[in-house]
Every structure is written in structure tokens, then in C-alpha cells.
Design a protein that fits this description.
The chain has about 270 residues and is of the alpha/beta class. Helix content is about 35%, strand content about 30%. The protein has 2 domains: about 230 residues, P-loop containing nucleotide triphosphate hydrolases (Rossmann fold, 3-Layer(aba) Sandwich); about 30 residues, no CATH class. The relative contact order is 0.16.
């Protein structure tokens, strides 16, 4: 499946959030959506998921509009993980993950073998099998996020759009979740994730889209996007660069607006 956004604009409260955003998302790639706070990342992700209409421009899904495809059919193709998505009922974690199968079931359809298999696979993949009988309200923030990710995976959609999927996780689970998303992309799923950790984005993503001031400032492989000049102009930071086993990494090092000589990145 492919999503194409053309000249997309968005606004809220009389303030422009996105302007002239044009890009394509396709299966089989792990795309990181990065940029400073207020750049419009969550707004763009919701528009790409068909959850919010653009104020101007268009979004198509395999060349068709969301209205033409229909809400249920689109929900089978695109899974969306919201940032800190609410859970309003005292559900067991396994029941919450089963909600990811709703797009595949009719109004009166019961749980099928395929549904159970998909839920079991999602729980296993996210390391949440041990949480399956826990009430979601008793889970920690990180546990809850992994269960919500399992619900998203249980949909078995062609595209997975996730808003800050590692924000509440400890370092180990951040690494495991980023590897999980990368592996999902390598297996054929298209993955788009809003990310703030530039080191993780550089290491795991195939492609980065840098948003700043509501516009796409760069789009391409991490090494091409995360240049010193772009990080200075978009984030106001300097970074320290290095390599481990031949794999490059970067760490945000200096806030340039308050930099002092001792804060400059080591050579």
C-alpha cells in the first residue's frame, strides 16, 4: 500500500501548522518523522492515517480517497498508534489487543482462529505475553505502551503509523521496540514513526523526514538528513558524532543558543 500527500496544509486555532507538504509513504520502509516541538509531526501523521482531513491539498491511499475506500477498509490497511492513547474501560491487556482485530470482523462476527493467532503473535512480538491477564489500568506507562503497540500489530495492516512509540520506554525497551519496527518494515510493512531521539532515528530508520516550521526541510537517508547545518537550523543544536563497529551514531551535545566553549562537541 502507498500513501501520497500533495500540497497538504493544516491549521488550528487560526495558526498554520503545515504548509505545502508533499511526500509519499510506501510499504517495506521504516520512516522516521522528526523535527522540533510544534513542527506539525502529529498533525501530519493523523492526516496520513486518514484520521483528520487537510485544510488544503490531498491525501490518497493507493490512488483513492479515504471516502472512496471506506473507514473499515482503510482501518484494515492502516494501523495507528496514538501518543498516550486513552483506554477508557478496565480491560485486560489481551482484550485490548483483540480490539486491533475489529476492522476484520463484521458487526456480529465472533472471534476467529485468525484473530486469536494474530493477538498471540502480537503479544509475543512485543514481549507482553506475561501481561495478558493484567488490567490495563494497573500497568506502568511503558507496559501500557507496549500493549497498545501489540494492539496495533494485531491489525496486521500494510502500514503502521506510530506517534512517539518509544517515548515512555526504558532504554532496553526502546531498543527492542525500534528493532521490532525495523523488522516489521523489512518483512514488508510500511512503518512511519514520530521520533524525538535522533540517535535511535539515525540507527534504525531507512528514511527520515525532517519537519520544521510546518514544512519538509529534508527527506532521505538518515546520513543525508542529519547534517550539522540542518540540525543547527532546525533544532538549534550541535551534535557529537562517532561510530561503533563501523556504524555511525550521533548524540545531541550543545544547545547553540546557550553554548559555551566547554560545551562544544569533542573531536
Amino acid at each position: 500500500m502507498r500513501i501520497d500527500a500533495t500540497a497538504v496544509a493544516a491549521a488550528a486555532g487560526g495558526r498554520g501548522i503545515l504548509s505545502g507538504v508533499t511526500l509519499g509513504i510506501e510499504a517495506g520502509r521504516f520512516t522516521g518523522l522528526i523535527g522540533p516541538n510544534g513542527a506539525g509531526k502529529t498533525t501530519l501523521l493523523r492526516i496520513l492515517a486518514g484520521l483528520a482531513p487537510p485544510a488544503a491539498g490531498s491525501v490518497t491511499f493507493d490512488g483513492e480517497s479515504a471516502a472512496r475506500i471506506g473507514r473499515r477498509a482503510l482501518a484494515r490497511r492502516i494501523a495507528y498508534l496514538a501518543q498516550d492513547g486513552p483506554v477508557h474501560w478496565p480491560l485486560r491487556a489481551e482484550a485490548l489487543v483483540m480490539l486491533g482485530r475489529l476492522p476484520h470482523r463484521g458487526a456480529l462476527g465472533g472471534v476467529t482462529t485468525a484473530d486469536r493467532t494474530a493477538v498471540e503473535r502480537a503479544l509475543t512480538t512485543t514481549g507482553t505475553l506475561s501481561l495478558r491477564h493484567r488490567i490495563v489500568g494497573t500497568l506502568s506507562g511503558g507496559e501500557r505502551l507496549r500493549v497498545l503497540l501489540a494492539r496495533t500489530l494485531a491489525t496486521e495492516a500494510s502500514l503502521l503509523l506510530a506517534d512517539e512509540p518509544v517515548a515512555a520506554l526504558d532504554p532496553r525497551h526502546q531498543l527492542e521496540t525500534m528493532a521490532l519496527l525495523r523488522d516489521a518494515a523489512r518483512a514488508g510493512t510500511g512503518v512511519v514513526a514520530v521520533l524525538h531521539d535522533l540517535a535511535l532515528a539515525a540507527r534504525f530508520c531507512d528514511r527520515l523526514i525532517l519537519l520544521a516550521d510546518g514544512a519538509v526541510r529534508a527527506d532521505g537517508p538518515p546520513a543525508a538528513v542529519l547534517t550539522d547545518e540542518r540540525l543547527r537550523d532546525s533544532y538549534g543544536i550541535a551534535v557529537h558524532r562517532g561510530a561503533v563497529d563501523g556504524q555511525p551514531f550521533l548524540l545531541p551535545w550543545t544547545a547553540l543558543s546557550s553554548a559555551s566553549p566547554k560545551d562544544t562537541p569533542p573531536s
